[in-house]
Amino acid sequence: MLHSTIHRSPSPRRLLITAGAFAIATALVAGCTSNEPASSDDEGEQQAAGSSNDEMGEEVTIAWSGPEADHGWLAAINSSALDEAEKYDDINLRAAEGTNDASLQIQQVETFINEGVDAIVLLPTDGAALTDIAMEAMDAGIPVVNVDREFSSPFAARTTILGDNYGMGVSAGTYACQLIEEHDIDDPVIAEIAGIDALPLTQDRSDGFAEALSNCGEEVDNRVAAEFTVESGEAEASNLLQAAPEIDIIWNHDDDQGVGVKAAFDNAGRDEFFFIGGAGSCNAMRWIEDGEMEATVLYPPTQAADGIRLARLIAQGKGMSDLVQVAVPRRIVLDAPVVTADNVDQHMERCFES
Length: 354
Hints:
By secondary structure, the protein is an alpha/beta fold. It folds into two domains: 22-162 and 302-334, Response regulator (Rossmann fold, 3-Layer(aba) Sandwich), CATH 3.40.50; 165-298, 3-Layer(aba) Sandwich (Rossmann fold), CATH 3.40.50. It is 36% helix and 16% strand. It is built from ten helices and 14 strands. The chain has helices spanning 72-86, 102-115, 127-139, 165-182, 200-214, 230-243, 255-268, 282-289, 303-315, 344-347; strands at 22-24, 27-29, 60-65, 91-95, 119-122, 144-147, 159-162, 190-194, 222-225, 249-252, 274-279, 295-298, 331-333, 338-339. Strands 4-3-5-6-7-13 form a six-stranded parallel β-sheet, sandwiched between helices. A six-stranded mixed β-sheet has the order 9-8-10-11-12-14, sandwiched between helices. A two-stranded antiparallel ribbon has the order 1-2.
C-alpha cells in the first residue's frame, strides 16, 4: 500500500542550511555544486563548487520504502525521510507504508519500478531478501539508495548509507576507558547490555566495545543480551544487577530498551556506576541533562533523510563539491559520536522519542 504522494508545484527555492552532513570515513561532506549547465568552454569537465545544491533543480520522483515504526528509532527513520523530502519543492515523493514483511516490501519496489520513478531510497526489512528486486530496479535504470541494512550484492545499490555499529562500540569503549582514567578506577567492573545477539549489528557493537576496552587493558566482566524492547531491557538489566553486586560502568546498546534498563536500575536503587547508552533517544538526552546518565553514543536516525538528499543529487545529476571527486560516493558511513553533558544541547534537536 502506498501513502498519498507528496507533491508541490515548482516555486522559487529558499536556501536551506541543514545540520548533519555526511561522514565518509572521518571526512565530513555537505554537498554543493552548481546547478547551472557547463559553458561550452568547460564541456566535458567537472563543474567547480559554486552554488548550493539546495537550490531548485529539475523535478524528480523519489520513492521511499522503510520499516514498520514499531521502535522509536525506526519511527524516527521514517519521519526523517518524509520530513526531508518536504524541504524540497523539486521532489515528488512516493512513500510506501512501513512494513516488516519482506514480501510486501518487494511488491512495493515492483510498483516503484513499474511507475518509472527516478530513484528509490530503501531501508530493507531484510537486506538479502530485497537484493534481487533492488537489482531489478538498478537494471531498469533506477538508482537505488540502500539505507542501514545492506544488500547482499554491491550491484543492488548506486549508493549505500550506513550507521556505524562497530564504531558505536568503539566510541562506547573508548569513552569507558576515558572514565576509568579520569576517575582513577582500579580494577573496574564493566558490564554490557546488548541487543539481539543473533543480529550482525549487535555482534559488531560488542566487537567494537571489546576492541576499544582492550586498548586500555580492560574487558567486559558481565554481559547480558536483551531484544531491543523496554520489557526485555528491564528483565535483562535486573538479571545483570543480581549477578553483579557492584559495577563501575554499564554500556547499554539501545536507548529504546534503555527505558526498561533505567527502570531496573531505579527499582533496584542502583546508581553507583557510569551509565552509557546507545542510539540517541530523547529520553537518554534528558537523563544526561538531569545527571541520571553519563552519555549515549549516536546511531543517527537521519540516515533516511540523508538517503533522500543523496537520491535527489543522483537523480538530478549533481555531485558533492566538498570532495575533489564530486560524484556521490558509493558507500557512506556516518559517525558515532558520544553525547555527554558537555554537548547534549548540540544533539537534542535530532533526538527521537522512545
